[in-house]
Amino acid sequence: MENMENTPQRLQIIHKMLDIVRHDAPWIWGFHPQDFTLYHQWVMNAKPNAISYNTLKYVRIDPAIRTEKRVAWNQPVFWPLLFGLFTLIIITLPVLLKRGRQQK
Questions:
Q1: Confidence of residue 45 (pLDDT cuts 50, 70, 90)
Q2: Phi and psi (nearest 5°) for 55?
Q3: Which are the contacts of 66, defined by CB distance < 8 A and separation ≥ 6?
Q4: Which one-letter DSSP state was computed for residue 6?
């Protein structure tokens, strides 16, 4: 087929070859990228772009919603501090008691 002249017989062979390839192809040929990005509720005008990454200047942020969510999500957690203090007391208590007995 490669060395044949452009005749209807050559075109028929090309069509037959294409039909075989189309039938046996496991995927549709082509490139169709899909970008998925998660954004917070306060981020607006942000769209994924596979070609350009300089779109940060177009992103709009709502500071009121951001502050509200930050305050709601970032409540201080004090139990690790109390647990650490309790552990420190439990660890040092036997040492202090032993030193007290040795000094008597």
A1: confident
A2: -95, 10
A3: 40, 42
A4: S
